[in-house]
Amino acid sequence: MILNYNSAQALRAFLEQEHLGMQKKFGQNFLINPQIRNDLVQALDAPCESEVWEIGPGLGAMTDLLLKKGLIVKAFEIDNGFIRVLKDLFSDNKNFTLVEGDAMKTWSAHLPAGKYLFGNLPYNIAAALLADFIEKGNIFSRIVVTVQREVALRMAARAGSPDYSSFSVLCASAYKVKPLTVIHRDSFYPQPNVESMAVLLEKKEACGYPAVFYPLLRALFSSRRKTIKNNLLTFLSSRFNRQAQGICADILSQNNLNGSERAERLELEAFLSLAKSIDNMRI
Q1: If 163 and its partner were Cys, which of 3, 116, 157, 186 is the partner (CB 3.0–4.6 Å)?
Q2: Rounded CA gap, 274 and 91, in Å?
Q3: What is the 3-state secondary structure (H, E, C) of 157-173?
Q4: 48 phi and psi angles, rounded to 5 deg
Q5: Which residues pair with 234 in a beta bridge?
């Protein structure tokens, strides 16, 4: 089986020949620009024989490049038709392993993960999947992924910017985030309705986040119009009941906050400090 990954016409003909359909719910868009594919693999900068998790390999355009680089690829694919094609193409390669099913549901059964993550992530799960990895402690040394441009901007956003969110802080808690390049719609088949962006994430040194950090982060951003004090009080009330008012005042004081601040103005260090204050409570 030989595929021309650079031609929309050739891919369309192949899909028709194999009776394969594109499923919108899976966010399937093939990257047909060979230069960008090569650039992304180069950006991953994974040494030969490193294990790479690839999410959403599709028909294997990027998989082929990774394997030719001498990398050990564990590919996660949900589409049954594409699974059949991937098996035909790569099952004889000892460096290729295929995990069938929804990556959101299957990845945790394949730990420990390799040091590298790569993929043209399905738009509908990109943020949720990356967040799941981080919150569950599956931190890769290096990640190169393609996501919707708006998601990439959120990943890299700094405090006070319009794109800053709990997801921005979550990414910053584990990685240095660097947008690589905007990938225009005509680089894909079929063309998506939005622009894409490739993003590089490099692992930071672990600094030890208490378990309360992640739920606290979500709570403080849950109502963006509310102040830190109001969101924090709601969060604490679910844990400390009637003592929440006093605890809230103490925690704000410990962190030199007056309570009128809003979450989108706080840096990562402020959220970590708040989480540590709550974690140190002995109530």
Answers
A1: 157
A2: 50
A3: CCCCCCCCCHHHHHHHH
A4: -55, 140
A5: none
3-state secondary structure 26-73: HCCCEECCHHHHHHHHHHHCCCCCCEEEEECCCCCHHHHHHHHCCCEE
The owner of tokens 């109001």 is: 230
Cβ atoms of 223 and 231 within 8 Å: the answer is yes
Integer CA distances (angstroms), 190 to 29, 112, 257, in order: 6, 34, 50
Residue 74 phi, psi dihedral angles, 5° rounding: -110, 110
Give residue 27's pLDDT.
64
Distance CA 177, CA 36 (A): 19
Dig out the tokens for 116 from the structure: 């590298």
Burial class (CB in 10 A: 0-12, 13-18, 19+), 213: buried
Instruction: Supply 36's token pair.
Output: 């960008």
If you ran DSSP here, which 8-state letter would residue 115 be given? S
CB 201 within 8 A of CB 142: yes
In total, the chain counts a number of residues equal to 283
CA 131 to chain centre: 6
pLDDT of res. 208: 83
Name the strand (E) or helix (H) holding 137. none
User: Token digits for 243?
Assistant: 């003592």
State the Cα–Cα distance between residues 247 and 20, nearest whole angstrom: 58
Peptide bond into 112 cis (omega under 30): yes
The rounded distance, in Å, linking the Cα atoms of 89 and 18 is 14
Q: pLDDT for 75-112, tens place per residue?
A: 999 999 999 999 999 999 999 999 999 999 999 999 99
